[in-house]
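Thanks for the sequence, V.! I ran J domain-containing protein right away. Repeating your input here for the record:
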Amino acid sequence: MKLFTLLFGLFALLATSVLAWDNEDHEIFDLVSELEASEGRGTTFYSWLDVPPTASTADIAKAYRKKSMVLHPDKNPGVKGIQERFARLGVISGILRNKEKRERYDFFFKNGVPTWRGTGYYYSRYRPGLGFVLTFLVSVTSLLQYVVQRMNYKRDLARIEHITGKAKAAAWGPKMIPLTGQRKVRVNLGEAHDGDGNVLDSKWIDMVVNGEEVYFLEPNGDQILIDASTATPPAITRTWFISLNKSLAYKVIGKKTTDDEKAGGAAAPEEDDSPQVDLTSDDSASVTGSGSEKARGGPVATSKVGGKRRKAPKKR
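Predicted structure:
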């Protein structure tokens, strides 16, 4: 929720910066519209004065005097609109001879002057095309997916640390002094309570602590190592767009894709009968493997990370 709030605020800030034109901007917009309506579409302040955009202030003043002699109302008696054109010439000349106003006009001259369409000004030259929109959406959604991957990775690491910490506490005691040898423990990963505080259900799971290593113990006796490598790290290559292109490329060249690749995950080995460790949001966990039952734990997992099946050394 915080992420989407941040993005919404960013887009709102960008929209505000585009729409918050000041009075000088609106003066320029109106002059551009009036100039094109009077002198022809595409006419700019520079082209009307017949000077290049790099003209100096002295050149602009000289061009203004020359143009004003042509447009002076005394020399054009009875010409319709001559008063407005002459007054407009003075305002435009004043803008181009003012450093700050000229810089502002040059910005719109180079980047496109906004056009009025009833709901506000928008850039007529920079309306995004289909390609730009698709590229933007792909980039944003891929970035968001990568951010979610990072969040899930950190969450899974925290859960792994929490679960292994409970197992070590059960094996070593409250002082957490490491003991040698292999110890089998039962760990309570959470309790469900009713409204009166009564315990409805406890989630217990068998685990083995052997030195610093912690294992999930399956009913068939197999042990699954639980450590930081159990969590799946984030990767740009596992975002949806890259995964989709990989899948399409594999179809073209005739290579089969794994279920993980189709779902936007990393490529899995062709034959992998290793169990999976399910870490749930309420700190419960379950273990599933090829041909094995689910170990005692909570409900169906919401986050899966690959576990390592490893036999713990036999207790001497």
